[in-house]
Amino acid sequence: MTAAICSRAGCRDGAVWQVVWRNPRIHSAERRKIWAACDEHVAYLRDYLGARDFPVEVIPLETEITT
Description:
13% of the residues lie in helices and 22% in strands. The chain is of the alpha+beta class. A 3-stranded antiparallel β-sheet has the order 2-1-3, with helices on one face.
C-alpha cells in the first residue's frame, strides 16, 4: 500500500487526515471529495474550503468513509 501524500500544493509530507468536502452547487449530497492532509496543512485546507461555504469534515486518515 502506498502512503498518502498531503494535497497542499508543494507539500510532499505524509498525510494523516482526510478533508472530506463537496461543492453543493454542482454535487449532490452523496458525492464527496477527499483531500489528504498532513498535520501542518489540515487547517489550511479545511479553512480554504470552508471560506467557499463548502460542507467540510476532517477525519483521521485511517477512518473508513461511509456514504
